[in-house]
Batch of 4 targets.
Target 1
Amino acid sequence: MDSDDDFNMSSEEEDVLEDSDNDNGSVDDFGFDEPEPDLGYTQKEQVKKEKRTFDTNFKVYHPDDIQAQQDDLIDEVNMILDIRKEDAAILLRHFRWNKERLIEDYMDRPKKVLEDAGLGPSTTGPPKLEVIPGFMCDICCEDEPGLKSFAMKCGHRYCADCYGQYLNQKIKEEGEAARIQCPQDGCKRILDAKSLDLLVTSDLQNRYHELLTRTYVEDKEQMKWCPAPDCQNAIECGIKKKDLDKVVPTVACDCKHRFCFGCALPDHQPAPCELVKKWLKKCADDSETANWISANTKECPKCNSTIEKNGGCNHMTCRKCKHEFCWMCMGLWSEHGTSWYNCNRFEEKSGSEARDAQAKSRVSLERYLHYYNRYANHEQSAKLDKDIFTKTEKKMISLQTASGMSWIEVQYLNSASHALQTCRQTLKWTYAFAFYLARNNLTEMFEDNQKDLEMAVEALSEMFEKPVDELANAKLKVEIMDKTSYCNKRRVILLADTADNLANGVWKWSNNN
Amino acid sequence: MTQKRITKELQEVLATPPPGIKVNLVDESNVHNWNIIMDGPADSPYAGGKFQLLLVLPPEYPFKPPKINFKTRIYHPNVTFDEHGSMCIGILKSEAWKPSSRIPNVLTAIQQLLLEPVPDDALEQATAQKFKEDRKAYDKEAREMTKKYAK
Ligand SMILES: [Zn+2]
Ligand SMILES: [Zn+2]
Ligand SMILES: [Zn+2]
Ligand SMILES: [Zn+2]
Ligand SMILES: [Zn+2]
Ligand SMILES: [Zn+2]
């Protein structure tokens, strides 16, 4: 933005900045992870001890951990029930890794359990390839002497080639592993890993075990794969489907991807999954109406010259007439830095204006667009903020060499960028959330929180767009660090309040959409 | 290897075809494309009709299931009422197909489907709806369509 920095701070904000202890320059705050809230230190103590209400307990598992978990369970069942490890593995998969239920059922009716799991009665010894005189393979119809064949304990015998090709088809083409049955029509016998090793090449064996690991995670209700592309980790979290109207379980993988354990979408706090689903569907259905919004250019409300938005900040200054306005509501920017700030709230017109159906539908569209605009704008701005950061980072490197600043000294920009990303992500979803809220005191409080966070984020975003030589200025650096920690703090307050109300079931939903 | 199995199956089907079914090759030089003529089962509204089907054995047969489509239009919840005549039938789903399954099993499964439609697994929703709610009207429509297309 090319305006002067004449942003007015609200008195409340100044207070906070004065009495917060400025330790946000510590290395701790430079991480890429979820920013630690930087509260005044009495509050900070509390936060460190208590879990924040909107935090979810979870554990990240790496591929090795996942394998080890399965092996441990298999070993246990192998010892307790005194059955082969291959069979223990099949039984566990059949019981979706519920060890207790498996052992209980097996103690009661071992025969039935084995049969149901595809481990019916034995007719032969340990798996081996055999040459049987007079054998004809029922799949390929070959009967040449010396043909090697294989049968599992069910006794259904096929030539080794056909068996191998069948397994290849199942594993490679169909991605099946845990539930591969005997090739015999109607036979439910499940193939075990030892038999597999006899019949296929080692790369297929590896693929098979990879797939088994997959099913292990997919079979467990409390486990999910990290949806980030190329990430092999899984997350364990105790949140059940039925809890999803009370909590928004955001989890963070070690790969840094933050996502919702409930629906696997990227972090959408504070909005609950159900609402997110509804909102996304609505946006998709109404995409035509809303399409123009993502446009990156608008006209100056005063002189009508075209203005392009190329940073995340919503404070626009017309190059031609120097008019300062808000990109979101096109209103005067001077009103935005004060307690008059009302950009986030949708003012419902009095009912008398909207009597006929047409007027009503216009009002409802306006209402939707108010929220959609802001939702889409924060998404867009987050991207633009990131672009700015990438550019700034490059310049910073040259600046570092010029000014002799150390790498650690310029990390405050990294922290600021990260705060902008997470806060805009949160702000984005506050608009979807607010769209579904009924008008009441609670909603007003929510909007006040939203307003505080939004104002702080826009202020930070604006500082962030300063030219590099200004950024290196010690005073601005302190301001950016303060604003960064203030943004993080406002975000925590908003999320905590919203989560508490959600957990207590006190939000009232609007019925006009 | 595939060739031997297919030839054997073909010989068996030609020698002892399942009741109500005739089989011949679309093109004598290609054992992968079979032409099937299926009689509408006696206890169904398709009785009296002769339905042509095309059965294609993929190169991976019998590790992959055959593909089969109605060439004759048929009014049935589980068969698309268009030029494709696609159908949805359990035995042909890759998770149910076993390499030891035989083509006559597939053909009898289709005959069974004509006798007992599975409306909950329908490809033609309107037809399924009618089958469930007004069996008489469904039978009538099926008989008329059989007369019209399957002569
Ligand atoms: Zn064979
Ligand atoms: Zn078997
Ligand atoms: Zn990950
Ligand atoms: Zn979710
Ligand atoms: Zn202007
Ligand atoms: Zn505004």
Target 2
Amino acid sequence: MAPLATVEDVRAAFAAGLRDVASPADLQELRNRFLGRKRGAVTALLRSVAEASPDERRELGRQANALKQEIEQALAARREASAADAPTAGDDGRHSPTEKPAAAEGSAGAEVARGSGVHDRISGRGAPAAPLSSAVLDVTLPGREVRVGHRHPLTAVREEIEEIFTGLGFEVVEGPEVEDDYHNFEALNMPPEHPARDMQDTLYLDAPLRTRSDRPGTLLRTHTSGVQIRYMETHEPPVRIIAPGVVYRRDTPDLTHSPMFQQVEGLLVDEDVTMTDLKGTLECFLQRLFTPDTQVMFRPSFFPYTEPSAEVFMSCVFCRGDGCAVCKRTGWLEVLGSGMVHPAVLEAVGYDSERLTGWAFGVGIDRLAILKYRVQDIRAFYENDLQLLEQFPL
Amino acid sequence: MRILVSWLREIVPVPVGIDDLAEALTRHGFEVSSVDPAPEIPGRPAAGPDAVLDLEITTNRPDCLSVLGIAREVAAIYANPLRWPPLAEPPAANAEVAVTIEEAGAAACPRYASSLADVRVAPSPAWMAARLEAAGVRPINGVVDVTNYVMLELGHPMHAFDLDRLAGAELRVRPARPAETVRTLDGETRALGDDMLVIADAERAQAVAGVMGGADSEVTGATARVALESAWFDPISVRRTSRRLALSTDASYRFERGADIDAPVRAMRRAHALLAEIGAGAPRGGIADCYPAPRTPTTVALRHARIGRVLGIDVAPDFVPVILERLGFRIETGPDEAGAPTWRVTAPGHRVDVHREIDLIEEVARHHGYHRLPSTFPPLRRPPAAPADSLERRRLLRRVLTAGGCSEAITYGFIEEAAGRPFVAGGDELVRLANPLSETYAVLRPALLPGLVDALVYNRRRGRRDIRLFEIGRRFSAAAGETPGVAVVVAGSAAPEHWGDGQRWRTGDRGGRVPPADFYDLAGIVERLLDALGVAPAFAAPAGAGPAWFVPGRSAVVQASAPGEGTLVTLGHAGQLEPAVAAARGLPAGSGAIHAAELDLDAVVRAGGDRRRLVASPPPRFPAIVRDIAIAVERTLPAAAVRETIRAVAPDSLVAVRAFDRYEGPGIGEGQVSLAFRLTFRRGDRTLTDAEVQRTMREIGTALRTTHQATFR
Ligand SMILES: [Zn+2]
């Protein structure tokens, strides 16, 4: 006869056996192995008590009986747990993965399908706290989904821009989307019939709309420059603002054009504001929005409201300046329009154009988002497909 | 503007290769958008590498819409002299054709030069035709081609009239007469307005000034004598006419940006030289130059110190006059100002963009080189203002709504009329666009919901079932103008499905474990977002059926009290969207209910507290006593009425009343509903006794019985 197992050996063997239980049949088999009248391990242990020395008999008897109770409790608890799960398990077990209701909704469907195969196993739900009887969990099943929404990617970029400029001491200001001709054009050195008005194909209202100012709105703003004019009309310099917002152009939608898009314009007016400050600020902005090694290049351009004007290019985010199809092999991407505020604009708001200088810039948020997230088609931003929206950071 | 480099070389030396030239022009503000191979120009072999450069000319530089204009820049960049193309010497003037600028036309036409020529109309020589084609102009015949050639080369538009088809041997520059028409060269008969300038013969209009000539005096194979026009037309007049006629030409494009008022005679002399060169004609007499009030050139003071103040760099004082002279400006040195030089700079006629000092600073910056500008950072002289409340509020809204499971949509501000129409409140009207891109974008959105419904439909059609979207944006209506709003749409299940949730419900047309989202899921979102903005909303049944875009009886008006306002402020509405509204936008059948809410953010702001003035209260030190109460009342009685009755009776120790159950059916009388409330009592200064709560509960019971005929369960 093999030497008798100790109480601890039997307890360990039972714990191991319980861990492997996957069905009611397994549970019955485990019971027989330990509590069976003939070959049960605990039964054998109890029998051995009689053969122990008188010194050991009392203690061994107490331990063996305690173990027997523990095992009985554990088996009962497990039986209860599996009974409680049975209706759910039976109900779900009839579903094939393809019938799963959530199958169309991305990964959740796949997870549910993966779970269905184990429903006839003893579930861990409702298991009592006793260490030996704690039921085994299938930890590979998915957790309860916490439903959170996502910011729109254009908002994510816009807020990032706002944060960068707030950090540089700029104030964020806003204004109306329905504008009057004066604030959209005239105050910006674009009198009626100015050919530069063609650069921004404008959408006009059928009838003037009342606004909060004394000028009725007649058009959809083509840029947020009107916000800057309004700010200067009501604030003394220095001015250090950015004006983000939606703007409208009469552009037929295509890969790179949308008749509505988002823009941020910046304006700095103070004594001794220079074009080199403009370059330094935009460099800082683009390096933070993209990567610290982003390079910035200015090229002469024309806008009626700035002079000198510059188109701003940054090193291509796709090829890091080596040249690729996106940057047309130049290594540079045009991202911004900018320049020194035209003295006529300062004069239109009653500022002293001799004492003050200023600079302004304008950038399409959509364009930056396209470059930042490599979105192929600007129109995708306005379809609001959740499968796109959910890819962006919260 | 397409520039043939070999043509350019006739006027200025190009000491670099094509790529370097393109790069230099781009760096000076003339973006080369493409470099195309040059066609062969028969009889005019290129003296070096050739190509056609396609240049983007900004609207302020019409002088560069010509070979000469680009040549001037190239001359300045490489410090080379210009070589003028040959000009004919004008013989003595003759009076065979009388030119009159009528007084009413003088403002729009301050200068009109004309001359006559005997011509032999034939195709142009191959070299001229090839150059025109390289520049994108179709060759027609020698005479017309010469006028176009001059325009491309010198930048000045010209026109040729068939002299024998002009009535009365005269040209009159005058406004169009009432109801006057002209058949233009493109064959269209155009109705003219009295603010349009025409060139007429003794009887009628023969050309729209600066825009297009008339077909009736067109140069044809039969033409023997021509009257050539080289004039200067006012930019605004030309632009207005061109726009009104929807007719843009090479000539109108140049005139509306600004032609060189000094150029007409020069262009005429060049035209005669070319007519002679190609054997197409010879002048009959000289050039009649009608220029009654010659313009004085613009003179501008330029200070070296100002250049530095604007650009932030120290440009060498010697560089300034040198570069401006190379560009054709006349320079006089002025007195030093504060130890720095100044100049008086006179602009040549072609520089219509130069009016003031800053225009010259731009020239200095361009030729000094933008690439040489260093990067500096502007000092902050004053603490920046605190972020605007509106901005903070929107960020908070986004945080709350995304945390509540809604994703942000951004939809177009203009929509289809059919999409907007159902959301127009009674008595209000849609705001229409005068020139919409298409019917899809014809009206400004009266609410955010039409765009959100479309976005929801878009996602639903792509197989999504659980859809929660919100948008923060502006709405437009004739009555309210432009207002900020926030809107939410909810469709699909109330919560994400989980394998561990046993109960099964029906959502839409497919089985699910969780119930479909209902009005109260939406109400919870609305309550949460308003709470974040410091607003305690009250939901009330709307008077009547409620907004037409909701199912009758299944919508609420969301209200709140506003500081300093006696009545409740209406913030907006929430409810179940009328199925027909979504169906009309293409929502597939069987999609289930859509719940939607839209709030006016201006009203929310009025009702909101100042979040920055929050004063914390210490956590309660004494225990609360909780009592549940279940009553049966009329089915139509709103829970809010019961709540108000309880509140009215209870002392201040009642800190919360919350409905936690509602039941209709077996065990409850016909037309009755069972409502259960949980009441929490607590005092801040001592522990409440059971006895006093018991007393309060009895009083509440009495009040509910008398006010609402409630029975206790
Ligand atoms: Zn690249």
Target 3
Amino acid sequence: MSEAILQSWSDSFVELSDNEIIERTLNGEPEAFNLLIRRWERQIYNLAFRMLGKEEDAHDICQETFFSAYRHLSKFRGDAKFSSWIYRIALNCCHTHLRSRSGTNLSLEQQYEDLGYEPTTTVESINETMQRGQVAGLVKKALMGLPPDMREVIIMKEYQDMKFHEIADVLGIPISTVKTRLYTGLNQMKQRLGYLKAAL
Amino acid sequence: MNNQDNRAKTECERKEDLMDYLYGEFSAEQEKSFKKHLLECISCQKEVNEFRAVSTSLKAWHVEGSPNVSLSEIVGETVKKQLPTVATARSVREIISELVAALPAWFRYSSAFAAACSLLLVLMATLNTEVRYDKNGFSFQVALFSKDTAESPTQIDKKQVETLAREMITQMVAEKQEQIKQELEIQISALNKELSEKNSAQLSRVTLELKTEQRERLQRALLELERQKNKKPSEFEDDPFNLWGSLDIKTGDRNTTNN
Ligand SMILES: [Zn+2]
């Protein structure tokens, strides 16, 4: 078959919905799955990168997620959203990865917290006085110090721009739980950023 | 700002509403109502400002690198397994159906593909053809003489005729293949649109017609070969391409093998 024919074939998929592509993949056109990968890999990579903080880990999770999705594609229910399903798989992979990481050492801000110090720096002042690169460094550190279930909610809301009901769908928890988790997470971020700035 | 004072303040219970407000998930009416609350609730005011600042900080962190999902590792292996690597000495039907299975659905039901199939079927059924389908695509070798005819007691230089025939058929097949390829490519975009309207009925009909035509051609070819076996050897030497007439393949018009 010529390149032109193959190209034309792959173009014919562009307008298809996720569910239609899945149907085709399951009906003997496995190459169709490539399109789903291209459609969602960026989002999954970003999510994994922020959950784990490392480029190579994000690559691994991304590969693992799509491989797992492909293998279990027949278990995907057509009434669900593919995006929710693939996010859930990716987060499961992230949690497995986090559990396998060797013992967590007590972070600086944790030590401050244990001593009962209150941060004296406000987040507003961090944004005003620090370079963006420095802020990014603080944010990454503070976010990595959060419990993973708070971290994932913050990531999905702040970076992936998802609605509360979508996050609830991915995590399989009530919408109100998503909101309270986000509230607690943001509070902790505020505190941690303050500690980290003070420790600089 | 005095931290002791902040902690002493009574917390507001509307944490979830605060989240809806902050991320714009309220309806217009709900938002109006919450804004009213904000005017009189210092705790919520303070938190709105703080959380907005946290949001701003969070946006400073950008993702490094890019996803590099290896398609071949996920899908490629499975695709490869579905395609036959080398398919020799198998029936024409078997090979064609395997080829058909490897093609996308819309292509399978296209009339251009049916035409290509019909040509291949007739060619391969009429001549003793060896077909290969591997990663390089579709290729076939043609042997003019089947086992039976090769053993027939004729005096002609079979090797010579066979070589000539081989060359001619290979050339003819290549030309036809090229022609089909070009036609296919021209028709692809149109076929794409027609896909939804196509159905398998059309292919079944063509296949049925093919079977009949193929049978007839085979019978004619066999009869002709039988007749020529009984001819004197000299007749072959005078006109070695006499054979072509029996197969409806004329030397002067190689491209039209299939009416
Ligand atoms: Zn309030």
Target 4
Amino acid sequence: MPDVRIGVYVCHCGSNIADKVDCAGVAEFAGGLPKVTIARDYQYMCADPGQDLIRKDIKDHKLNRVVVASCSPRMHEPTFRKTLESAGLNAYFFEMANIREHVSWVTEGREQATEKAKALVAAAVARVFYHEPLYERFADMNKRTLVVGGGIAGIEAALKIAASGNQVVIVEKEPSIGGNMAKLDKTFPTLDCSACILTPKMVAAAQDENITLYTYAEVEKVEGYVGNFQVTIRKKARSVDMDKCTGCGICYNKCPAKVPNEFDEGLGMRKAIYVPFPQAVPNKPVIDRQNCTYFQKGKCGVCSKVCPTGAVDYAQEDQLVTEDFGAIIVSTGFETLDPTLGPQWGYGRYDNVITALQFERLVNASGPTQGKVVLKDGTVPKRVAVLHCVGSRDLNFREYCSRFCCMSSLKLAHLAKEKTGGEVYSFYIDMRAFGKGYEEFYNRVMEEGIHFIRGKGTEVIQRAGELFVRTEDTLLGKYREVPVDLVVLNVATVPRADAEKVAQTFGIQRSPDGFFLEAHVKLEPLKTATDGVFIAGGCQGPKDIPDSVSQGAGAAAEALSLIEAGKVKISPVVASVDEARCGGCKACLALCPYGAVDFDDEKKVAVVNEAVCKGCGTCAASCASGAMGVRHFTDEQILAQIGEVLAV
Amino acid sequence: MKNGDFEPRIVGILCNWCSYAGADLAGISRIKYPANIRIIRVMCSGRVEPTFVLKAFAEGADGVLVSGCHPGDCHYGEGNYKAYARKVLIEKLLHQFGIEKERFKLTWVSANEGERFAQIVSEMVSEIKEIGPYRPPRERMRELQPGAGTPPAPGWLAEEELETAVAGGAVAGE
Ligand SMILES: Cc1cc2nc3c(=O)[nH]c(=O)nc-3n(C[C@H](O)[C@H](O)[C@H](O)COP(=O)(O)OP(=O)(O)OC[C@H]3O[C@@H](n4cnc5c(N)ncnc54)[C@H](O)[C@@H]3O)c2cc1C
Ligand code: FES
């Protein structure tokens, strides 16, 4: 091995590090460490002059190892690896000491911070001594993209990718795509009808030859890695042969079994064989086996008898298919909070307390009342209350703001006024009209004569058959009870009930609020912890339609930039076997979560399949003979680091 | 020994995807915690060998913190379960070496739990301050006066504990 010559660079990061750490002192200390040829401190190592400094030193001082003490390697390790490469040095002869996130930003005292920084630098120097050159490999990028969830975000993503000529599959768990937006009547701030702008997109997705729709389907398993995912999809039995069905609708007109309609939020009834809503895509029915007389009692069979094309197929079974994809976009959206969790809101206890989505269905011409806003007894309410922030911004329920809830509440107030002509009361904490045209919309609704009461509607009570909303009117400084006929609860936006399972299936992390976690809250809003898996829309947090659409398009761009590149880089950080030491015990074979370790029966040693290995190191950690190692995380490297991290 | 001015030194071995990122977040959010911990990054908590922990104590650590993703969140599926199974083995090993169990911790910290990470470190530092610096058993035995007590008895791995350890891959082979 040629003489090891290490260069150490201590970054000030402006004052971010230098305020707490004596950078010059750390550099001086590093200069005295074994094998260190040169040690410097500098204002901004990641800026061009900083990188030039490294490149020049590599040349002038014949450095063959570099340590930069600055921010987290999760931030700038790739930057400095490139610097080394551009100077003709293998990128893996680099190590970073994290003296910003793990030192200057978290430590009170300057002395402790400086000492800790020295320790981390000493450990990095000890480690880099043992580094070996590694070479990135490339794998072909599968050009097909999987979109999970066919709401507006997913549809937008699919359309954009399809327009580039690449193949997309949408997996949607409901019988139709459309998501929450399909249930809305009008949309703020322009008040254009939701179906009018959504339906063309749904139809375009169904007709696009590059898009395949799997509705009534869910993803069971994801294997592989960016560029080459193998995804197992369960296509649930629809009990209707999609090829034979013409969507004529005779079956559901004749079906005798009636069930509360979930699309109408339980307000109307549907049949056991049904199309969820008139504009559904695909517009073909599905049998809800739980509620179908034939499936529950073994008799009936009306739909099968009346179907002119013989499309009803009771014997149909779930189908499992495994397909390959290069990138995955998860756009599974959100749900709304179960209003019965707060008995004080009166939902489920009083007839005329409904949720915002129920109200959307009431005002909708294709809804259960053909667009008439009526009370349980069929009469038109004279006084309507719209409660903002129900369960949002509330430490007892959800701490966060549901973001579009002020705007949708304003929209509901406007619709209530328009449809009933009565008095409308809006109970709000503060008004958040943040978007383009939103403040203007607020002004417009105010001029319509709606009563704005600045106070959270905290309780709904019923006295002598009359509903009252209780609030503390913070402008009057008084407690008030406002008598009304209908209460609309704009309940909080919450993660889907299966968010945890979905997150685990796709290797996505979640924020404390339960929504999916982006790779960086500001700079990487669409990436996740797993390369090649992107998120878009309401699954990442409450979002209105414009934001969901932008994210859908953005996620498409993320996927397309991978597809266009054609190849994906595969990290060389993988396991490797020292055949001379391997005892052939096979413990690693069983431990590998990817089945990446095989056994060579002739040589009686373990063999790593590098294309499949992801470098977690579980095998190495349990190898009894020390034969199994992980490149760039070898025992030598880690033990050297542990040895020196305590030296100061 | 007076523990008042004792500053324990703790080695933290953190998985890249959750806990290391969580520690980064503590920094980004400028949450202050004691400087007693020095962090080393591994890709997954499943990479942590019992040897790493023993090495840290041999080098004079007063405590070792291993941290990975929450159960179910491991970037590689189940590396953290392997770490959990090895915990049994490590605890037994430490017991046999006469190292107090408070000195070793395995925790789960997600990429979003900066505050939790800072809290775990703070708690561990004060716990270890309580029990004092780590001294190798031999040193302590030498100090023991005749009749002042018996050296810590070796603890053996119980059958069923061995089984969990083997199933989790903590022990290779038979
Ligand atoms: C009462 C109310 C009123 C609103 N009014 C407006 C408005 O006027 N203007 C406005 O801009 N926004 C409004 N919004 C917000 C709007 O609904 C959302 O911005 C939009 O629906 C988000 O789209 P999405 O695609 O991200 O999620 P979603 O609409 O939730 O779609 C997600 C899709 O994924 C599917 N899915 C879920 N889990 C899985 C899984 N595991 N596998 C496969 N598929 C899955 C779902 O079935 C669904 O089809 C309103 C919301 C509510 C609740
Ligand atoms: S990656 Fe965090 S524990 Fe495996």
